[in-house]
Amino acid sequence: MRNAYISGSGAYVPPRVVTNNDLVNEYGLDTSDEWIQKRTGIKERRYAAVGVGPAELAVVASEQAIEAAGIDKSDIDMIIFATLSPEYAFPGSGVLLAEKLGLCDGTGATFVPALDIRNQCSGFVYGLTVAKGLIASGGAEHVLLVGGEKHSSGLDFTTRGRAVASLFGDGAGAVVVSATDEDRGIRAHKLGSDGRYAEMLCQQVWDCRRSHFFNLDENGNGVVPPDEMYTTMDGRKVFRHAVERMTEALMGVCMESGITGTDIDLFLFHQANMRINEYLANMMGIPPEKLVHNIDKYGNTTAATIPLLIAEAERDGRLKPGMKVAMIAFGSGFTWGAAIADW
Ligand code: UT7
After folding, report:
1. Other C-beta atoms within 10 Å of 324: how many?
2. What confidence score (pLDDT) does residue 211 get?
3. Reduced to 3 states, what is the DSSP secondary structure of residue 257?
4. Cβ(231) to ligand 1 under 6 A?
5. What is the pLDDT of residue 227?
6. Where are the alpha helices (DSSP H) in the chain?
7. Nearest CA to 98 among 166, 144, 148?
8. Protein residue with least CA distance to atom 14, ligand 1
9. What homologous superfamily does CATH list for 3-182?
10. pTM of whole model > 0.85?
11. How far apart are CA 236 and CA 145, in angstroms?
């Protein structure tokens, strides 16, 4: 029986810490440490330097994951890169990562295929499902799955954008998903989407339905108004849908696996808002010791939240082989997903 399991993980966040007070004092954001902590649980986040994109953030995380998996980078059969903040509209960040990992250079070049996943906060769980399918079909032995984001260059620090700007941070997490004949690995998954709400959490800067991707001024130069340049979000509605869909996905994947929530040793929830996760945990009766968080120190890193949790929980010994683990995410699209793994 050919199973797919997470054989290694890695994490990288840029060194620059931006506290809630820094948002007020350095960025002039009309907010307060008290408001952000109370409404979201976020204390600080990381911002990457100008010139750095998600592929670069992903390099260290990927190298750590490859080393932890006990393989060489030349053993990677496929890169899957989940991001909503790519360097370019195209090509995707996956090819940039392959190049930065040295997979296109010299005699060791493997020219590994690279696939980008555009499923925002659910991108990692979607990617895990794709990786599992590739491995199950015999199409790959080792898949490098990355969630990497650079939000800091797309935030609106005026009052108009404060609900979004206070939430997001930069970072990257990576795992290697490997084939095994052992009775372990990713057991079940439940994915979903609801495109009726596509505009409820959206960035519309690029829209090819128009005569040009951008509006043009009389000189033919692109003009991007703020509501297209920055993410727009109906926070309250996103919050409500997140709670409903994450609960549904978690219950669905448990039913599919023939288990209940009490059989799960560790829950890795997407980190969008601590209140969403507390709500979910209360409804499902999940005790605090079965949850790990990083939203307090990194904010919402969208596709990177779950691989960052995995890497840090493995590093500090909270996530160990033999554990039954649930991963659950919800985000723009709307898209959502849950997966169960025997670690
Ligand atoms: O990754 C998945 C996608 N994202 C999410 O899941 C996010 C889901 N939504 C949320 O986390 C919350 O809705 C937010 C944290 C974004 C907002 O919290 P809220 O409790 O839902 O606040 P609200 O949007 O209902 O706004 C309440 C008030 C408003 O002022 P008025 O109109 O009552 O005077 C906002 O203008 O809070 C104001 N506000 C802020 N005040 C200080 C919004 N953002 C801020 C801010 N600082 N950063």
Report:
1. 15
2. 84
3. helix
4. no
5. 87
6. 20-25, 33-40, 54-68, 93-100, 123-136, 162-165, 226-229, 235-257, 274-284, 295-298, 305-315
7. 144
8. 235
9. Thiolase/Chalcone synthase (3.40.47.10)
10. yes
11. 31
CA dihedral 230, 128, 323, 338 (to 10 degrees): 60
- Tell which CATH architecture fits domain 186-199+231-342: 3-Layer(aba) Sandwich (3.40)
Active site (catalytic) residues = 121, 270, 300
Q: Where are the domains of the chain?
A: 3-182, 186-199+231-342
Q: What is the DSSP letter of 327?
A: E
**What is the average per-residue pLDDT within 193-198?**
98
pLDDT in the model for residue 167: 98
- Stretch 159-180: mean pLDDT: 98
Token look-up 């993980």 returns 9
Q: What is the C-alpha separation between 147 and 18, in angstroms, rounded?
A: 21
**Confidence (pLDDT) at 333:** 97
Per the CB < 8 A criterion, the answer to whether 274 and 293 are in contact is: yes
Reply yes or no on whether the pLDDT at 41 is more than 90.
yes
Q: What angle do CA 177, 168, 82 make, to 5 degrees?
A: 25
At 339, list the tokens: 């997966």
Residue nearest to atom 16 of ligand 1 (CA): 235
Asked if residue 3 has its Cβ within 6 Å of ligand 1, the reply is no
Average pLDDT of the residues of the chain: 96
Count of C-beta atoms within a 10 Å radius of residue 31: 19
Q: What is the mean pLDDT of residues 217-224?
A: 91
Q: Which atom of ligand 1 is nearest to the CA of 31?
A: 47
Is 186-199+231-342 in the same CATH topology as 3-182?
yes
State mean pLDDT over 80-92.
97
Atom of ligand 1 nearest to the CA of 164: 16
Is 164 in contact with 155 (CB distance < 8 Å)?
yes
How confident is residue 328, by pLDDT bands cut at 50, 70 and 90?
very high
> Could you say which DSSP state residue 103 is in?
T
